[in-house]
Design goal:
The chain is of the alpha/beta class. Helices cover 25% and strands 14% of the residues. The strands form 5 sheets. Strands 3-4-7-12-13-14 form a 6-stranded parallel beta sheet. The protein has a two-stranded antiparallel sheet with strand order 1-2.
Length: 406
C-alpha cells in the first residue's frame, strides 16, 4: 500500500473523484472537468439596490419591529430575507439586484466614539467569511442561484480601499488576511509606533491626524477659514452632522470676506477637484478615512491577495458584476490589474464633479481601468432644483428650468 500512496502523488487531477486503474493496479484520481459559470451580461439591466441589514427577515426571535439591537445597532436583515422576496423585486420590473457587502464585519460600536457600527457592510474584518448577522456562505450561494434561475443578474458590492476600524497592532492581528501593520498605509508615521499612529480618538487619543487623512485639508484643499474644505459657511451652528437650517454663504461673500478653499460652484473641495489649492493626489490615496485601516496596494501581498479574493468571490458565488466602493482612493494601476484578473465587469464609484478626472477611470487603449463607472451628478444637479434653500448644494432655488437645461 505504501507504493500505491507514492504513486498517487504523481497523478494529475482536477477534482477529487477516485477510481481504480485495472491496467496498472494503482489508485488514481480521475480527471473531471467542472462546468464553469458564465457570468450574465449586466449592461443595460435595471438593478434594485439593497442594504442587506435594512431589508428583510431578521432572525425569528427578533421579530419584525424596528431595529432593536441596542448592543450593536444592527437591524439584522438577512441574505435569506432577500431570497424570500425575489418575487417582490422581480415583480416591480427589476432585472437584477445590487447588494451591500456581507463579509465578516467589525460590528461596533467603534471605540473612537464617532464612527458607529459596521451594519452597512463596509468594515470588513475577514474577507473569506460571511457575517453571521447576514447569514451563511450557503445562503449567499442560494441567493445567487435563485436569481439566475429567474434570468436576473447579481451585482455585489466590494471595498478595496479599506477595512474596519483600526486603532492598534492588536486590532490589525484580528483582520483576515491583512493581519500585519505593513499591509496598511502609514504616511507620516515618523518615529511613532503603529499604536500611537492609529489611536485617533480611541483609548484617550486626541483625534486625527494621525493617521494622516485622505479626506479634507491636506488631501483635498488648504484649510479654509474653519479648518475644513467647505466653501460655504452656515450662518448658525447646525450641530454635528446636521444640515444648515438657513442659506449657506460663500466665504468670500462674508463681511469681511474670507478666502474659500475652492470655487463657489462646488460646495466643498472633494476628490478630483484639482481647482482647489493644496489638492494632494498621493494623500487622497494613502490617507485613511478617519480610523478605517487604509490598505497599501503597493505591498505585494495586499496586491496579490485582493486579486485572489476577487476571483474567489466571483467564482464561488457566481457573481455577474462588482460595484466598487470609493474607487478614486485606490491606485489606478492596481484597479486595472484587479479588473483584468477577476473576469467580470466592475462598476466603480467615482463621485467627482471633475469630469476629466472621472473619465480617467474609464477603459482606454485596450486595457480597462474599470469597465463601468458610477457618479451622482444628476443627484447633485437635482438637489438645488427640487429642494430649494436651505440645501447642501449651492444655488438651491427650486429652479427646475436649470435642471432641464443641464
Amino acid at each position: 500500500m505504501i507504493w500505491r500512496s507514492v504513486a498517487l502523488l504523481f497523478c494529475t487531477f482536477t477534482a477529487a473523484v477516485l477510481a481504480f486503474d485495472d491496467q496498472c493496479g494503482l489508485l488514481q484520481v480521475e480527471r473531471k472537468t467542472l462546468e464553469k459559470y458564465q457570468p450574465k451580461d449586466i449592461r443595460g439591466k435595471s438593478l434594485y439596490f439593497i442594504v442587506v441589514d435594512y431589508f428583510a427577515d431578521p432572525p425569528e426571535q427578533q421579530g419584525l419591529g424596528s431595529c432593536n439591537n441596542p448592543e450593536y445597532g444592527w437591524c439584522n436583515g438577512t441574505i435569506k430575507g432577500i431570497t424570500n422576496h425575489l418575487d417582490y423585486i422581480q415583480g416591480m420590473g427589476f432585472e437584477g439586484i445590487w447588494i451591500t457587502p456581507v463579509l465578516k464585519q467589525f460590528h461596533g460600536p467603534d471605540p473612537d466614539g464617532r464612527s458607529g457600527y459596521g451594519k452597512y457592510g463596509y468594515w470588513a474584518y475577514n474577507w473569506y467569511d460571511i457575517d453571521e448577522s447576514y447569514g451563511t456562505k450557503d445562503d449567499l450561494k442560494e441567493l445567487s442561484d435563485e436569481l439566475h434561475k429567474r434570468g436576473m443578474v447579481f451585482v455585489y458590492d466590494i471595498v478595496l480601499n479599506h477595512c474596519g476600524p483600526v486603532h492598534s497592532v492588536a486590532d490589525v492581528e484580528k483582520i483576515v488576511p491583512f493581519n500585519k501593520p505593513e499591509y496598511f498605509h502609514q504616511r507620516g508615521i515618523g518615529n511613532m509606533s503603529f499604536d500611537e499612529y492609529a489611536k485617533g480618538y480611541a483609548y484617550g487619543g486626541k483625534g486625527y491626524p494621525p493617521p494622516v487623512q485622505g479626506l479634507g485639508p491636506g488631501a483635498m484643499c488648504n484649510p479654509g477659514p474653519d479648518g475644513g474644505c467647505g466653501n460655504y459657511k452656515c450662518p448658525v451652528d447646525p450641530g454635528f452632522g446636521q444640515p444648515c437650517p438657513s442659506v449657506p454663504v460663500y466665504w468670500a461673500d462674508l463681511d469681511p470676506p474670507q478666502e474659500a478653499p475652492g470655487p463657489r460652484d462646488i460646495p466643498m473641495c472633494g476628490v478630483g477637484d484639482l481647482v482647489c489649492a493644496g489638492y494632494n493626489e498621493e494623500q487622497t490615496i494613502e490617507g485613511w478615512f478617519y480610523d478605517l485601516g487604509d490598505l497599501n496596494h503597493t505591498n505585494p501581498f495586499v496586491h496579490d491577495e485582493l486579486i485572489r479574493w476577487g476571483q474567489y468571490m466571483a467564482q464561488t458565488y457566481n457573481i455577474d458584476g462588482f460595484r466598487l466602493d470609493t474607487a478614486p482612493y485606490v491606485r489606478k494601476d492596481f484597479l486595472a490589474d484587479f479588473q483584468e484578473a477577476v473576469g467580470i465587469p466592475i462598476l466603480g464609484e467615482v463621485t467627482a464633479s471633475n469630469w476629466t478626472f472621472f473619465k480617467d477611470y474609464a477603459p482606454k487603449e485596450g486595457k480597462p481601468v474599470l469597465k463601468g463607472l458610477l457618479n451622482f451628478y444628476a443627484q447633485n444637479i437635482a438637489t438645488p432644483a427640487f429642494c430649494g434653500p436651505p440645501a447642501f448644494f449651492p444655488g438651491a432655488d427650486l429652479n427646475l428650468t436649470r435642471l432641464a437645461e443641464t
